[in-house]
User: Fold this.
Amino acid sequence: MRLLSSSLWAALSLTALLAGCRGQESDQPPVHLNPNMDSQPRYDSQAESKFFEDRRTMRFPVEGTVAKGNFLENDVYATGKDGDQYVAKMPVPITESMLKRGQQQYNIYCTPCHDATGSGMGLVVTRGGYPQATNLNEAYSRTMPDGQIYGAIAYGIRNMPSYAAQIPVEDRWAVVAYVRALQFSQNASIQDVPADKRGGMPVEAAK
Assistant:
């Protein structure tokens, strides 16, 4: 009798186990015996908070804090300013590799509005209906301090948004260097060409 009872319980247990593994989908959450803090209450972006006085769930960083790896001791290099004034010249030397990097970043982020020559008539302007961007070849732009161009990239200006999230500090200065080279190329004269190089230039260009 005991053997029969044990066999019956074993059969019932096996049936229940197999029924639990029948492979059918269920809309019930799985049993989570050890949650281990896997599921916690959280806020969605832009949601309202009942905890903070300003009702914001998205918090500003604590004033004065700097993200790991983003601390720069040289304020001029990091901001383009010396005190409250934009620096006239770049705080780093210009190299060929910097100019190539600047050209690459300029072509990605700047040409849509300023176009490849810096005229301010990029595709966003000519086809998108936006106001003309600043002409980087005009006297105003050519006499602008290097730090001010850096500031436009880092902080934005008028219709131009900040590109601080897309372009790191080093690349911002590279773009500034390339803009200066671009300005020079668009406003050069025969007098800027070394005398020993003028012989191979077209007659029209040499006038």
Summary: Strands lie at 81-82, 85-86. The two ends are 119 Å apart (CA to CA). The chain has a mean pLDDT of 83.
